[in-house]
Amino acid sequence: MVTAIVLIDVEADRIPEAARAIADLAGVDQVYSCAGDVDLVAIITVADHEGIAELVPAHISKVPGVLRTVTHIAFRSYSSRDSDDAFSIGMES
Fold first, then answer.
1. Which end of the chain is more exposed for a tag (fewer CB within 10 A), N or C?
2. Tell me: the pLDDT tens digits for 76-88?
């Protein structure tokens, strides 16, 4: 699996609709609206790099109101949540 972070610029009056449409796309795990240089940040997880090449330009970029995307591919996760999840596999709460 490949994880990528997609920074998305959207027309100001279309941010909520664009965020919902992007969140509904297969492969999109999370979408955040944010302050700063971009309007939305999407976390995507796909099977391979080809999946990113399909999802971002063919689907995310085509959502009405999306002006521009910048994609960053994640190499490794350092999240404590990921470590905690890995250690809890097979254990019941």
1. C
2. 888 776 555 554 4
Residue 12: HSE in the Cβ half-sphere, 13 Å Cα cutoff: 2
CB 28 within 8 A of CB 16: no
Question: Per CATH, which fold does 2-87 belong to?
Answer: Alpha-Beta Plaits (3.30.70)
Q: Is 43 left (phi over 0), alpha (psi -120 to 50) or beta?
A: beta
Q: Write out the DSSP string of the chain.
A: -EEEEEEEEE-GGGHHHHHHHHHTSTTEEEEEE-SSS-SEEEEEEESSHHHHHHHIIIIITTSTTEEEEEEEE------HHHHHHHHTTT---
The count of residues in the chain is 93
The string over 28-55, giving b where at least 16 C-beta atoms fall within 10 Å of a residue's C-beta and e elsewhere, is beebeeeeeebbbbbebbbeeeebbeeb
